[in-house]
Amino acid sequence: MASYEQIRRFADEHADRARIIEHETAIVDLESGAKVFDVTKAAATYIVEAKEGVFAVVASAAGHLKWRQLGRALGLHQIHLAPPELVKERTGYDVGTVGPLLLDGVRMFFDQRLLKHDFVYCGTEDAHHTLAIDPRLIIDSNDIAGYFDSAEFLK
User: Fold this and answer.
1) Is residue 33 part of a domain?
2) pLDDT single digits (tens) 107-144
3) How far apart are CA 146 and CA 67, in angstroms?
4) Residue in 134, 138, 123 with CA at minimum distance from that of residue 26
5) Out of 12, 27, 89, 98, which could bridge 93 as a Cys pair, Cβ 3.0 to 4.6 Å?
């Protein structure tokens, strides 16, 4: 289960590819995030349920995903956002603070568009701290189930 302290330690251990940004503004959505960082580099981590199980979907936060079409492309049936209780149970994160690290036992689908950035901004479990991380380090640190291009699935 993820905690801010574990993510901070991870960033310290990978200081050449990750860092924690502290901010007074509590980031709970893109609007509040825009006050702290370039949201075109934001990576949202969604926890979803499908007939095939529970997964993380890490995608560019630049728009809303068309879940039905994305699910079909990923081979997932009846995909939907997981309820807050399941997100907390499976990841240790509250909805709105989910980050792409320490998701033990949760396989991940990753948006290839994020790889065009040297680093992306992610949740840390603490709304007053943001992780700036090399997106390749996210891939290296997770069980990747597959890749997609969010440009094909944005509303």
Assistant:
1) no
2) 999 999 999 999 999 999 899 999 999 999 999 999 99
3) 15
4) 123
5) 98
| Domain span holding position 14 | 4-28+39-149
What six digits make up the tokens of 92?
A: 């240790």
Burial string for 27-65 (b: 16+ CB within 10 Å, else e) reads beeeeebeebbebebbbbbbbbbbeeebbbbbbbbbeeb
How far is 102 from 106, CA to CA, in rounded Å? 9
Token representation of residue 135:
């997106």
Distance separating alpha carbons of residues 64 and 71, to the nearest angstrom: 14
CATH of the domain at 116: 3.90.960.10
Amino acid at 64: H
Q: Is residue 34 part of a domain?
A: no
